[in-house]
Design brief:
With 178 residues, the protein is mostly helical. The chain has two domains: 1-113, Multidrug-efflux Transporter Regulator, Chain: A, Domain 2 (Orthogonal Bundle), CATH 1.10.1660; 123-178, no CATH class. It contains seven helices and five strands; from the N terminus they run βααββααααββα. The strands form two sheets. Strands 1-3-2 form a three-stranded antiparallel beta sheet. A two-stranded antiparallel sheet has the order 4-5. A hairpin with a 5-residue loop joins strand 2 (38-39) and strand 3 (45-47). The chain is elongated.
């Protein structure tokens, strides 16, 4: 007899569901402060349904998309738990809504804010179109980011970031079909 979708899960049930050893889940609790299972007598862990969804998102980003722990921490800090959980479930509408609401909140950049402080997965500025043979010449005074001997402008970096997000989403969809 299966449990209700709203039922709490033990660490062994979650570990089996995610195909992970239990010690990995305990380790993740030390690295991701957002993972907070309820602990009962004797230290037994019980995971809420939203904890399980978050763990699925973290697992998906780490194992399927190749993110580092630090990268997932940054994504969680930037976009929140619901965004990471939506990535695992493929809920694009929720991801877009979270990004849109986050973009509205951060319309005025903070003093000292860097490019990495903004929402991941969407361009921060209007793409120049330089890679596709259309658009502006780039002489708008946009500062360039130097990478080795070449330089990439903010607009092109945003365009590349959006393309990467789209490619990762395509990969996830293809992996689901297989």
């Amino acid at each position: 007899m299966d449990k209700s979708p709203d039922a709490f899960r033990t660490i062994s049930e979650v570990a089996d569901d995610l195909d992970l050893p239990q010690h990995v889940l305990r380790f993740w609790e030390t690295r991701f402060t957002q993972i907070k299972p309820m602990k009962r007598g004797g230290g037994r862990r019980y995971y809420r349904p939203e904890d399980v969804e978050l763990l699925k998102g973290i697992r998906h980003l780490l194992y399927d998309h190749g993110y580092t722990i630090k990268g997932v921490q940054k994504l969680l800090k930037t976009n929140g738990n619901k965004f990471v959980a939506a990535i695992a479930s493929g809920d694009v509408a929720t991801m877009d809504a979270i990004i849109a609401s986050s973009s509205e909140k951060h319309a005025e950049p903070k003093v000292g804010a860097t490019e990495e402080d903004q929402v991941l997965g969407r361009p921060k500025v209007k793409p120049s179109g330089r890679f596709f043979g259309f658009g502006s010449s780039g002489d708008d005074g946009t500062p360039e980011v130097s990478i080795g001997k070449s330089s990439v402008g903010k607009e092109d970096r945003a365009l590349l970031q959006e393309a990467l997000f789209d490619l990762l989403e395509c990969k996830r969809l293809l992996d689901q079909v297989r």
